[in-house]
Amino acid sequence: MSNPFILPDWPAPAGVHARVTTRAGGASVGPWQGLNLGSHVGDDPAHVALNRAWLRSHLPSDPLWLNQTHGVDCVVAETALAGCSADASVSFSAGHVCAVLTADCLPVLFCSRDGKAVGAAHAGWRGLLAGVLENTVRQMHVPSADVLAWLGPAIGPQTFEVGSEVRAAFVAHDPAAASAFAPKGKDGDKWLADIYQLARQRLQAAGITQIYGGEFCTVSDPQRFYSYRRDGTTGRMASLIWRD
After folding, report:
1. Terminal alpha carbon distance of the chain
2. The domain 5-155+206-243 is classified under which CATH number: 3.40.190.10, 3.30.70.120, 3.10.270.10, 3.60.140.10?
3. pLDDT digit string, tens, across residues 84-121
């Protein structure tokens, strides 16, 4: 089994810490086998509690767990309540851990060049289309040119099949999004979507040029990653970021 953490390969400033959990280790069994951190996926609550306690031992504080809704809301970790409905959080002071849970959706971690602001966003295609990444950047209150973004483990471009209505919605927002879709089949009703390219396009349009990551595929790597598209009933990984 692989290492329990993935460390983002980005030039984050000193004092910024980021981790992504894999399914290595953990107390969960069955379809949640490993380090499942999702409390809403049918796993034994006692196992989830053990997994979260292990994770907490590697962090400066409890992560801000969100009730993710595939929307665009972004909260401030210093003042938000655990379990609040949002799909992103930001922090401006030491020791507050921003976190999102995923199992195919795209997690994006952010930090400012000076390390004073950090954030985490959950971007499924609905949230990505609606602008969750742009809203998270706005809530950081940092010039876009000073923001670094890292794209974490998500469903890859060879496995993310979507309908023509999804492609049409992205292209209606930005015609350049057409390059992120490849036809699947002959009827024109199914497409393979590159969520990483779509995210890069949205971030670049928002003025962010320092974009890293995006080389994973959760569906194709069952040893390391949970995947809802692959397994249906499954666990969740956490993407986390905080500052000293």
Report:
1. 30
2. 3.60.140.10
3. 999 999 999 999 999 999 999 999 999 999 999 999 99
